[in-house]
Amino acid sequence: MQQLEWDQKLWWVHVETLVGLILAYKLTGRESLKAWYDQVHAYTWLHFPDPEYGEWYGYLNRRGEVLLPLKGGKWKGCFHVPRGLFMCMRFLEEMG
Q1: Taking the domains of the chain in order of start, what are their residue ranges?
Q2: How buried is 89 (Cβ within 10 angstroms: 0-12 exposed, 13-18 middle, 19+ buried)?
Q3: Cα–chain-centroid distance for residue 60?
Q4: What pTM was computed for the model?
Q5: The dihedral of CA 70, 74, 76, 77: what is its sign?
Q6: Which of the residues 31, 32, 69, 86 has an alpha carbon 20 to 30 A from that of 18?
Q7: Are 90 and 96 in contact (CB under 8 A)?
Q8: From first to last of its 96 residues, what are the pLDDT tens digits of the chain?
Q9: How many Cβ atoms sit within 10 Å of the Cβ of residue 12?
Q10: Who contacts 64 (Cβ-Cβ below 8 Å, separation ≥6)?
């Protein structure tokens, strides 16, 4: 069992942050929110996806290194990542 600690980076937090930031930008037009979205997006896509086999790793350390190679389990299923990415895509398409 992996103990979650305050200094870890979790897949769920990052995908939901992307959704929240792009929706907030869509609703307000504030460029600072778009800048935060771009920053989180760049970090997330650099560190979470497995470039060889797909899917996202669940847990990283503060340096962005994978803590567990497991990509699915009791707390990480195959629903949240595609749903979050679909929502981001939809909001971006709606903004043109």
Answers
A1: 9-95
A2: exposed
A3: 12
A4: 0.91
A5: positive
A6: 69
A7: no
A8: 567 787 899 999 999 999 999 999 999 999 999 999 999 999 999 999 999 999 999 999 999 999 988 898 887 888 999 999 999 999 999 999
A9: 15
A10: 9, 43, 46, 47
